[in-house]
Design brief:
Number of strands: 0
Distance between the termini: 7 Å
Order of helices and strands: HHH
Radius of gyration: 16 Å
Strand content: under 5%
Helix content: over 70%
C-alpha cells in the first residue's frame, strides 16, 4: 500500500528538482526564445496579459506536472492510504 504523505513529499521534491533543471536549461538560448515567441503571439492576440516571466513560470509548471503524470500513467493502479 502507498503511504500518501511520503508519496506527496517525494513528488514535491521531484517537482522542485525538475523545475530547477528546466529553469537552468531554458535560462538562455533557443528554448527560451521559442517560449518567448509563443508568449509574444499570445500577448499580441490578447490571449494572455501575463508578463513573459509569469508565462514562462506557467510553462515550467505545466511541463513538470505533465512529466510527473506521464511517469505514473503506465504503472499499475495503486491504493493510497
Amino acid at each position: 500500500m502507498i503511504n500518501a504523505g511520503k508519496l506527496l513529499a517525494d513528488l514535491k521534491r521531484l517537482r522542485r528538482g525538475l523545475d530547477a533543471d528546466l529553469r537552468a536549461t531554458h535560462a538562455t538560448g533557443a528554448q527560451r526564445a521559442a517560449v518567448q515567441a509563443e508568449w509574444r503571439e499570445a500577448f499580441d492576440l490578447a490571449r494572455t496579459r501575463d508578463t513573459f516571466e509569469a508565462f514562462l513560470d506557467g510553462a515550467f509548471d505545466q511541463a513538470v506536472v505533465h512529466w510527473v503524470s506521464n511517469r505514473f500513467q503506465f504503472r499499475p493502479p495503486f491504493r493510497v492510504q
